[in-house]
Amino acid sequence: MYVVEFARPVCYNGNVMKHVLIISASPRKAGNSDILCDEFARGAQEAGHDVEKIRLAEKDVGYCLGCYACRKLGKCFKKDDANGLVEKMMSADTIVLSTPVYFYSMDAQLKALIDRSVSRWNDFGRFTGTEFWFIVTAADGNRDMMNATLEGLRGFTRDCMDGAVERGVIYGTGAYEKGEIRNLPAMHEAYEAGKNV
Ligand SMILES: Cc1cc2nc3c(=O)[nH]c(=O)nc-3n(C[C@H](O)[C@H](O)[C@H](O)COP(=O)(O)O)c2cc1C
Question: I want to staple 80 with a disulfide (CB 3.0 to 4.6 A). Which of 3, 7, 60, 75 is the partner?
Fold first, then answer.
C-alpha cells in the first residue's frame, strides 16, 4: 500500500503555513479584545499564514441544552451556527480564544460556544497538536485577576483535549473604555504573537 503525503504550503520564511482561527467573543466591535485580535491577525498574515477571524457577536450560538441528542446524531440538533464553528475549530492549526473578563470569567458568548462543542466530544482527539493562544482584556491592571478566566479556558483546552498546546496569553490589562488598549503594551504583544504563530 502506498501512503501519499502532500507537502503543506509554506510561508515566505519557509515555515509551514498554518490555518489560524481567531474567535473574538466580545460583543463590542472594535473593543479592546477585538482590537488585539486584529493585531494578532495582522502579525500572522504578515508572516504568511492563512487567517480567519470570527466575531461571535455576529453568529447565532445558542446554549447547550445538555440533552445529549448529539450522542446519536454526532452533532448538535440545533440549526444555528455552532456546529459549523466547532467544525472550523477542529480543522484549524492554531486557535485564538479571545474574551473580555466579565466578573472574573470568560464572557457568556465564548462559554456558549465551548459548551456546544460537547457535541463533538468523541472527536476531541482531532485537537491533538492544535495550538491555542488566549487574548483576555479587563479594566483591572493586575494580571493575576485574570487567573480565574484563564483557568476556565484551560478547563477546555488543557483539561479536556489531550495534546492541545497552549502557546501563550496576551494580557490586555488596564483597558476599560473601548479602544483604550491601543495605548498599552498588549498591542505590540498581540502583533508579535501573531508573527510567531
Ligand atoms: C458585564 C461586565 C463585567 C465586567 N467584569 C469585569 C471584571 O470582573 N474585572 C475587570 O477588570 N473588568 C471587568 N469588566 C470590564 C471589561 O473587562 C473591560 O471593559 C474590557 O476592556 C472589555 O473588553 P472588550 O472591549 O474587548 O469588550 C466588565 C465589563 C462588563 C460589561
Answer: 60
For a substitution probing ligand 1, which of 29, 55, 103 has the most ligand atoms within 8 Å of its CB? 103
Atom of ligand 1 nearest to the CA of 176: 19
Give residue for cell 504578515: 46
Amino acid (1-letter code) at residue 118? V
| Domain edges within the chain | 20-195
Cell numbers placing 150: 484563564
Question: Would the pTM of this model clear 0.70, i.e. be above it?
Answer: yes
- Residue 141, all three cell numbers: 491592571
**pLDDT single digits (tens) 142-165:** 999 999 999 999 999 999 999 999
The CATH number corresponding to 20-195 among 3.40.190.10, 3.40.50.360, 1.20.1250.20, 3.40.630.30 equals 3.40.50.360
Secondary structure class of 24 (helix, strand, coil): strand
pLDDT at 4: 59
| CB neighbour list of residue 187: distance below 8 Å, 6 or more residues apart | 35, 36, 39, 181
CA 53 to chain centre: 9
Tell me how far apart the alpha carbons of residues 183 and 59 are, in angstroms, rounded to a whole number: 29
Q: Residues 84, 54: contact at Cβ < 8 Å?
A: no
Cell 483546552, located at residue: 157
* Dist CA 195 CA 189 (whole Å): 10
